[in-house]
Amino acid sequence: MADCRVRRAHVDDAAGIAEVHIAAWSAAYRGIMADEILDSLDLDRQTAGWAKSLSAEQNPMSTLAAVQPVAGASAGAEAPADRIVGFGGVCPPRDTAEVLDRLPEASGLGQLAAINLRPEAFGTGVGALLLHALEDELRALGYTHAYLMVAEGNARAMGFYAKHGWHRTEITHVFDAVSPAVPERMFTIDLGD
Q: What's the whole-model pTM score?
């Protein structure tokens, strides 16, 4: 995708991030998560959640947005100057000790908590641009290595992470925030130079 860049997300991005979140989950998780979960994703509810998250002063998540300029947008116009085509977030580890204690080393560990793209951005290089910016953000926050969790069955994502230097582990976990729960696989990376 031409002219794509990555910047820090802000509260005005909430609706665009919510659109991407719903479109990405609907495309990537169909057949992995229950259709009822994906079909019930609500733009207003997602937008409100993202607005709350992005405006929270003590939010541990550092959220970045991959954006493209909107053709014909001008400064001061009511229409947004950027179109959100992807987003991602990094943070301190959110998983339980039961999961993290299976790692050989957990000091200096950060988490790539999310990365989502509009389906039309799959395979265009936007994901790589965003992933590398998120890795840089982890380094800037002082993390020396990182992990992420991928839904079992999400072969596209697993291949993407492996292509970019992330290592598949034998550590698994069950994402039980949805029903039925979704098994996940941990990938890790050393963030050293």
A: 0.91
